[in-house]
Write a structure and sequence with these properties.
Chain A is an alpha/beta fold and about 400 residues long. In chain A, about 35% of the residues lie in helices and about 20% in strands. In chain A, helix 7 links the parallel strand 6 and strand 7. Chain B is α/β, with parallel strands linked by helices and about 300 residues long. The chains are: A alpha/beta (about 400), B alpha/beta (about 300), C mainly beta (about 90). Chains in contact: A-B, B-C.
Chain lengths: ~400, ~300, ~90
């Protein structure tokens, strides 16, 4: 089954063109050879489905509006089994519905690419720890903007095939809907072995028919893992993927304060740090590009030379766990983010503003109190009398 | 000396371990697409009977090297090791969506699912209905024994009123447990469904009729005419908590009275229950006569 | 006082039975139209009784069709046999 990149006339864009991030990611998928997509509308992911629906048929691909997220991942599962490059996606809530399938697809070693156009950064745990059962890891790539997204999407399809493991693109409302001037050109990757594990009916009746399964069973007369064996095989495979770690760092040489941030908010952090440096503040940043594998080494090195590390996230604080592990006690780690979305909960919040971000970084750097997160004062939980004491 | 037409009293036991030299074989041990006749199903289980039928149908129609199976989760999952068919294992209830993905990528293949009633009508009801409504050109095969067999015999959406299961010990009660879903009949109503049939394996005549249903379903898929569905009522004496020999009778008298056997939809025409009953009566008599005369295809 | 008489049973077909695969479900017994299958008294290696064949088989293959364990192969004789059967009444 041919799955390597195929020319997609009319999909690639060689002269910079203004387009929303969703469209950029979809065009990148198709030039990477993706020929199947299934999804269910949900804000802010819906436009990804719309663009696939419009563009895939132009290259002979298939896009199905599935009856729910659960069926969408099932359909992608089937398409992947035939050796095709396929993807699905949603926002965090929709991905919650797909978790059982994600676990099983990983054990079945299918190269699924997953789009999370998240409603913020609070799906970090879901993406990196997985909401599914069992021992599995997905490579998670977090683009900071559409142009990087175009590169990371193509990398995703390559890594998925390389490792026979799902890869998740962590996007968000901002990435999905902001229009940027981009080019979409195919990136060449090293050649991969043919997908002789795929099934297409041609081996039926040969005595050597194929099985695509997570259960570790095999045909009579052929090698069989067994369920325990398959789980062990997957468990030993996971750490090997850690070599795919990617990170961007800046201004770390003499940084006293290091800020760790990912995704579109990281672009705000980088800009703020550039401004602060111009004012003479010794601040630097670490931007994980792979959320899994997390760049622990880069964080440790940065923390070793610094006085303090801040984790900036648009959430209640999830990546900070990994930052703490990475810092390994070299420097104290502080949370300098917060939950901030728009009124609907889908999109970008008030806190994502260069002035606010700068104030937070400066407060961390100068040892002051973090500015209040907009809204916490009004909506913050008030602990109740019966909750004051721990229960023993 | 008389030749007898009535069943003769038992005579001497004949040798049956080697094939006779002066005879032609009319039925082989197992389908070519079955790697081994051994399996772990209970004595008296109806599911292996269905396995034979659809594998034979695929071979006879010359569709083997295009065929891909998508298997659900149930007792029958273990058939995946002995079916010499390119195969994708799906999760409980999820086979129709996986089959959709396979068929859309390989439109010239013959794709079928193999699911139980717990899998298809409980966990995966939405999947099979939407797949049928979309007219996906796949064949969904339902092994309907009215219980979750693999977990030990629990009520499913197809269990009938009065049926005793591990969680309906006093029999399914309409007030408390609701009514069964007649999935074949439901699917026949959908425009995307091109051929819908319900077979049964309670006796040889029913088995023979069910074989024909599989042939028609796969032929319909091969023509590209839309979604096809073959439900087959099977015995599960273990899940029904009855002696093995009572399986076929129980099947006919309980499940068979509610889920009516027959071709539910052919060429866009949905058959009424009256039509099904009439057809069943006629064919039962016909099959009995043929068998007594020496065979269905003698 | 019992009498022994003989009569001929026309046997058009026969089967082979893989007794070791049989799980003793007994579904073939009532399925056989000429009723020429009976369950053994002996048991196979798995502990199940298995079907045994008597004269009168028509080769209709009903037993094969209802057997869940793929125990049967069915044959039809080129020339039907006539088997003498003794009956004690």
């Amino acid at each position: 089954m041919s799955t390597t990149t195929v020319d997609a006339p009319g999909i690639a864009v060689t002269e910079r063109r203004l387009m929303e991030g969703s469209e950029a990611l979809v065009r990148a998928s198709i030039v990477a050879g993706c020929r199947f997509f299934a999804g269910y509308p949900m804000t802010p992911f819906t436009e990804v489905l719309e663009h696939f629906a419009r563009l895939l048929p132009e290259v002979g691909g298939v896009c199905i509006n599935a009856e729910s997220e659960l069926e969408a991942v099932g359909m992608a599962w089937g398409a992947l089994s035939t050796g095709a490059r396929a993807a699905t996606g949603s926002t965090g809530q929709g991905l919650s519905l797909m978790q059982e399938s994600f676990s099983e697809i990983t054990v079945a070693e299918l190269p699924l690419v997953i789009f999370n156009m998240a409603r913020g950064q609070q799906d970090y745990f879901q993406a990196t720890r997985g909401g599914g059962h069992g021992d599995y890891r997905h490579i998670v790539l977090a683009p900071q903007d559409a142009q990087e997204g175009i590169e990371l999407v193509q990398l995703a399809f390559h890594l998925a095939d390389k490792w026979r493991n799902p890869v998740l693109i962590y996007g968000d409302y901002l990435l999905a809907h902001v229009q940027e001037a981009v080019t979409v050109e195919r990136i060449d990757f090293p050649e991969l072995p043919p997908k002789d594990w795929a099934v297409d009916g041609s081996r039926t009746g040969s005595g050597l028919s194929g099985t695509v399964t997570s259960l570790g069973v095999g045909k009579i007369g052929q090698f069989e893992f067994g369920q325990e064996g398959k789980y062990q095989y997957i468990a030993t495979k996971m750490p090997l993927m850690e070599r795919e770690v990617r990170v961007e760092t800046g201004y770390l040489d003499d940084a006293e304060t290091v800020v760790v941030a990912f995704g579109t908010p990281a672009k705000f952090v980088k800009y703020a740090i550039k401004q602060l440096r111009a004012d003479g503040h010794r601040v630097g940043y670490v931007r994980p590009i792979t959320l899994w594998p997390f760049p622990y080494d880069a964080v440790r090195e940065a923390a070793a030379g610094a006085r303090r590390v801040g984790s900036f996230e648009m959430s209640g604080g999830q990546m900070i766990d990994d930052v703490r592990i990475g810092a390994a006690g070299q420097a104290p780690v502080h949370f300098i983010g917060g939950v901030s979305t728009d009124q609907s909960g889908f999109g970008v919040g008030r806190m994502l503003d260069v002035v606010d971000v700068t104030a937070r970084i400066l407060a961390l750097h100068e040892g002051g109190e973090q500015p209040p997160v907009p809204g916490y004062e009004t909506y913050g939980y008030r602990i109740q009398p019966h909750q004051m004491e721990a229960t023993r | 000396m008389t030749t007898t037409s009535a069943p003769p009293p038992p005579g001497p036991i004949l040798e049956t371990s080697t094939a006779p030299a002066d005879a032609r074989r009319v039925e082989q041990l197992k389908p070519d697409l079955l790697l081994s006749p051994e399996h772990h199903m209970c004595p008296g289980c109806g599911e292996p009977l269905v396995l034979r039928l659809f594998l034979e149908a695929i071979e006879e129609l010359g569709l083997a090297t295009r065929s891909i199976a998508v298997v659900g989760i149930g007792c029958y999952t273990s058939f995946s090791g002995s079916m010499d068919v390119d195969l994708v294992q799906a999760l409980h209830g999820r086979a129709p969506s996986v089959a959709t993905g396979v068929k859309r990528m390989l439109p010239d293949s013959i794709v079928f699912t193999l699911q139980g009633d717990g899998d298809m009508v409980n966990e995966g009801l939405q999947e099979v209905i939407h797949t049928a409504a979309r007219g996906e050109k796949v064949t969904c095969i339902l092994l309907n024994n009215g219980v979750f067999g693999e977990t030990g015999g629990h009520m499913t959406a197809t269990s009938v009123i009065g049926q005793r299961t591990k969680n309906t010990l006093d029999g399914r009660d309409a007030d408390y447990h609701g009514y069964p879903i007649l999935i074949g009949d439901l699917i026949a109503q959908l425009e995307g469904a091109a051929y819908v049939a319900r077979g049964s394996v309670h006796n040889a005549g029913a088995v023979a009729r069910t074989k024909k249903m599989f042939r028609r379903a796969f032929e319909t898929q091969a023509r590209g005419d839309g979604f096809t569905f073959v439900e087959v009522l099977t015995m599960c004496p273990t899940g029904w908590f009855i002696p093995t020999v009572e399986g076929p009778g129980y099947l006919h008298d309980t499940l068979g009275e509610v889920h009516i056997m027959g071709e539910l939809k052919v060429d866009g025409v949905v058959h009424t229950t009256e039509q099904l009953h009439a057809e069943n009566a006629a064919r039962a008599a016909e099959m009995e006569a043929k068998l007594a005369a020496g065979g269905i295809d003698a | 006082m019992s009498a022994v008489s003989g009569h001929v049973v026309k046997t058009r077909g026969t089967v082979t039975i893989d007794v070791e695969t049989c799980k003793g479900c007994e579904l073939c017994i009532p399925a056989c139209p000429p009723k020429v299958l009976t369950m053994s008294t002996a048991v196979n290696r798995k502990g199940y009784r298995y079907p045994e064949l008597h004269p009168g088989c028509t080769g209709c293959a009903a037993c094969l069709m209802v057997c869940p364990d793929f125990c049967f192969e069915v044959f039809r004789f080129n020339t039907p046999r006539e088997l003498e059967v003794e009956v004690t009444s």
